[in-house]
Amino acid sequence: MSIDREALIDCLERMAVEDDTEALAASREASALMEASGLSWDEVIREGLRRAPSAAALDLGEDDASVAKALKALLAKPDLNENTAEDLRDFQADLEKGELDPDDRKYILGLYARVGG
Fold first, then answer.
1. What angle (nearest 5°) sits at the alpha carbon of residue 30, between those of residues 27 and 36?
2. pLDDT per position as a tens digit, 76-113
């Protein structure tokens, strides 16, 4: 069995946010990923999470075009968690309307830097 490494890491990181509702949702997403994978926490920790090979990284800045490229690359990932994909599609719509929050921009670029496209 395998698990969506990037989605699990994203969930684990979101568990530390100040908003208890968001942290609880992240915890439940992580539990759902674990259940779907058929792996135990012990197996994941003992065996570690191996990063799947990815395509060459994009050279990105912080401008709208770079964020759009990062979103496109992330959304093209075949193993992308559906909840993460939904969030990214919402960010994409905000970007197209010129309403992307600066914190969301940082999140997108940080996620891309961590998981690649």
1. 140
2. 887 788 888 899 999 999 999 999 999 999 889 888 88
In angstroms, how far is the first alpha carbon of the chain from the final one?
22
pTM of the shown model: 0.53
Task: Report in angstroms the alpha-carbon separations of 102 from 34, 42, 108.
Answer: 31, 37, 10
Residue appearing with tokens 């490494």: 5
Calpha distance 91→105 (Å, rounded): 8
Q: Are 117 and 73 in contact (CB under 8 A)?
A: yes
**Phi and psi, residue 16, nearest 5°:** -95, 0
Contacts of 7 (CB under 8 A, 6+ apart): 29, 33, 79, 80, 81, 83, 84
Structure tokens at 94: 């905000």
Question: Which SS3 state, helix, strand or coil, does residue 114 take?
Answer: helix
